[in-house]
Design brief:
FAD/NAD(P)-binding domain; seven-stranded mixed beta sheet; 18 helices; FAD/NAD-bd_sf
């Protein structure tokens, strides 16, 4: 438990991107930091390894990192000195539709608009200003909602669009390719696209994508957490793996403790010290729909019908906007859609060293109901065959990861929820509970720093960094 006699010491529980970002922030402020990780290796959702085929490298969860490349915190660190290198595919994102056409997203707004034909002017009008101010906008959006804006006009302009349902914003576009391209990114909400704020996630990711692209980390997503860990150790910190923390009483004396845990797990670790109102919020915290992951070793790559998909690091499979919206609503309401939304990562196009000869890693995950106990393998493969006939014939090896498997591998992925909680209108603005300081647990010196806190999911480290700053302010050092 915390001990004011050790004002120079801090403990972080969890060595995922947020836990390590919190630890680095504290260490760079002069604290002696120890990180405890339950698993045998660091990384959380940002890990990589071989799955069945020697030399073919897959990411365990996070794969493309638009918000990582644009992270206001990570950009302040010289992580390149610790081995982190961003790589970009020729096409950042593609979204095929049944006609054989596809919408393609590039870092360039102009190139994206030019390829969208009739919808080019509408795309340019919507995303041109947002992309131009993406760096300032990212700095605003990736902080707690209660703060003094540094760029109020840009934030207000974004807010006018972000407040709307994605279904309303999609009406700006007439072609299936443009509507599908926007809808696929909007589906990163993991919730109904008809709800208020339903457009917010899609707008932010597209704006950031036009500014930073959708890169991958060279050598796998583990390069992000490996670099953070190396910086932490260089700054005097320590990491102990294979240590499962079940109670604050297990921890050494420290001025502050940060928990990179899901809210219910944090409540269990804090125990009776947690105020009843906070305990209710943490134990009743609503999680998002789950992910069902399918990793494929594909000889010759996926035979996409749409040419842009063959060059795209990320491909969204969901059909037209209406089909995406239907599938997202079904999964959110606990029903497995026949044609689920599927996100495909072809990281090897930017990072060829992930392949073994002509056998390439292709990762896909489907949005499924929370805690889904079925097998979504066939539903995912059906989406591949829909837009890339003959994919099955090229598969050399396949590894399926269910929602239960995800949670066993990473306790923060409750029920297969890889985004840290349901993105309801309230939780998009106030998470994990309604509070002026969302990182505070109500226990002096103890803070929550997982993706359940603002700004939410992604290997960007901002939840950890923001929580650490809150902890430093409490110590009078922020």
């Amino acid at each position: 438990m915390t001990n004011q006699a050790r004002r120079d010491a801090a403990v972080v529980v969890g060595a995922g991107p947020n836990g390590l970002a919190a630890a680095v922030t504290l260490a760079l402020s002069g604290l002696e930091v120890t990180v405890f990780e339950a698993a045998g290796e660091i990384g959380g959702g940002a890990r990589s390894g071989e799955l069945g085929v020697p030399g073919v490298l897959f990411d365990h969860c996070s794969s493309t990192h638009v918000m990582g490349a644009g992270s206001p915190f990570l950009r302040t660190l010289d992580l390149a000195a610790y081995g982190l290198e961003w790589l970009w595919p020729e096409v950042d994102l593609a979204h095929p539709v049944d006609s054989g056409d596809a919408g393609a997203l590039y870092r360039s707004v102009e190139r994206t608009a030019a390829e969208l034909g009739a919808d080019g002017p509408a795309w340019r009008r919507l995303f041109g200003p947002l992309a131009a101010g993406a760096q300032a906008l990212t700095e605003e959006v990736m902080r707690p909602i209660v703060h003094l804006p540094r760029h109020p006009l840009r934030l207000a302009r974004f807010g006018l669009h972000a407040l709307q349902p994605a279904t309303l914003v999609a009406r700006r576009f007439r072609t299936e390719a443009a509507r599908g391209l926007f809808g696929g990114v909007a589906a990163h909400l993991y919730g109904p696209l008809t709800q208020p704020f339903g457009a917010s996630v899609g707008l932010m990711i597209i704006a950031a994508g036009h500014r930073y692209g959708w890169p991958v980390a060279k050598g796998g997503s583990r390069a992000i957490t490996d670099a953070l860990a190396a910086l932490l150790i260089d700054s005097g910190g320590r990491i102990e793996t294979g240590v499962r923390v079940r109670s604050l009483d297990q921890l050494p004396p420290a001025a502050t403790v940060l928990l990179d845990l899901a809210p219910a797990a944090a409540a269990a670790v804090i125990g009776d010290r947690l105020p009843p109102r906070v305990r209710r919020a943490y134990t009743r915290y609503r999680h998002a729909p789950g992910a069902f992951k399918l990793d494929l070793a594909v000889e010759g790559g996926v035979p996409w019908r749409a040419e842009s998909c063959r060059r795209a690091g990320t491909v969204h499979l969901g059909g037209d906007f209406a089909q995406i919206a239907y599938a997202e609503r079904e999964a959110y309401q606990g029903r497995m859609p026949e044609w689920p939304f599927v996100l495909v990562s072809q990281q090897y196009l930017a990072d060829p060293a992930r392949s073994a000869g002509d056998v390439h890693p292709v990762s896909a995950y489907a949005h499924v109901p929370h805690g889904y106990d079925g097998d979504a393998t066939e539903a995912i493969l059906a989406q591949f065959e829909r837009f890339a006939p003959g994919t099955r014939d090229r598969i050399v090896a396949a590894t399926a990861t269910s929602t239960a498997d995800l949670e066993r591998d990473n306790a923060n992925f409750v029920g297969g929820d890889i985004i840290g909680g349901a993105n309801t209108p309230l939780r998009l603005t106030m998470r994990p509970r309604v509070a002026l300081d969302p990182y505070s647990t109500g226990v002096p010196g103890v803070f929550l720093c997982s993706a359940a806190t603002p700004p939410g999911a992604g290997a960007h480290g901002m939840s950890g960094h923001n929580a650490a700053r809150s902890a430093l302010r409490a110590l009078g050092a922020g």
